[in-house]
Amino acid sequence: MTVSYLGLGSNLGDKKKHLELAVKKLASVDGIEIIEKSTFYVTKPVDGPVQGDYLNGVVKIKTTISPGCLIGTLKNIESEMGRCSCPRNYPRIIDIDILFYGNAIINTETLIIPHPRMHKRYFVLKGLVEIAPDEVHPVYKKTVSEIYENMLAGCFE
Predict the structure, then answer these.
(1) Which one, of 11, 2, 3, 23, lies nearest residue 123 by Cα?
(2) CB 131 within 8 A of CB 37
(3) Contact residues for 30 (Cβ-Cβ < 8 A; gap 6+)
(4) Listed residue (43, 38, 16) closest to 123, CA to CA
(5) CB environment 7-26: b (16+ within 10 A), e (fewer)
(6) What are 19-51's pLDDT values in tens digits?
(7) What pLDDT digit, counting tens, does each position of 118-145 carry?
(8) Are 56 and 9 in contact (CB under 8 A)?
(9) Which of 53, 69, 84, 112 has the fewest CB atoms nearer than 10 Å to its CB?
(10) Taking a C-beta distance cutoff of 8 angstroms, is the pair 19, 27 a contact?
């Protein structure tokens, strides 16, 4: 089984209900075991049109599902929950991203792991530092805590 971290976000409707349902749906998937989840926290939107605040969180899972199949599973859950296809950074009912998949470094047309912008995103790092402060980023070779402190200080790589 591979330890993976998933970022969750919602800024439409009952945001807390959407995040809780997403976690429940993840837990019901064969090959996914929820290990830990961060608290949910409010964040401001980044880029995109004018929109409401997000509710975000991070989930730690163990999985037997390959990265390519896992992203498909996440997209299916998003679709089941009513997420429509929209441009990046637009409002959404639910967004589920793979942040880390073990120590894997993947860069294909359809999947980039670790998440390519996570080191600059408070809405990702806030929950990740809560449940995985000592996890080492496989590209930057720094802990999540170090990356979080760099992000807060405005020091981006």
Answers:
(1) 11
(2) yes
(3) none
(4) 43
(5) bbbbbeeebeebbbbbbebb
(6) 999 999 999 999 999 999 999 999 887 776 667
(7) 888 888 999 999 999 999 999 999 999 9
(8) yes
(9) 84
(10) no
Question: Which are the catalytic amino acids?
Answer: 83, 92, 95, 97
Q: What is the amino acid identity at position 149?
A: E
What DSSP element (H or E) covers 62?
Answer: strand 54-63
Q: Where are the domains of the chain?
A: 2-115
3-class SS of residue 99: strand
Rounded CA gap, 156 and 128, in Å?
17
State how far the Cα of 88 lies from the Cα of 86, in Å rounded to an integer.
Answer: 7
Pick the more confident residue, 156 or 124.
Answer: 124
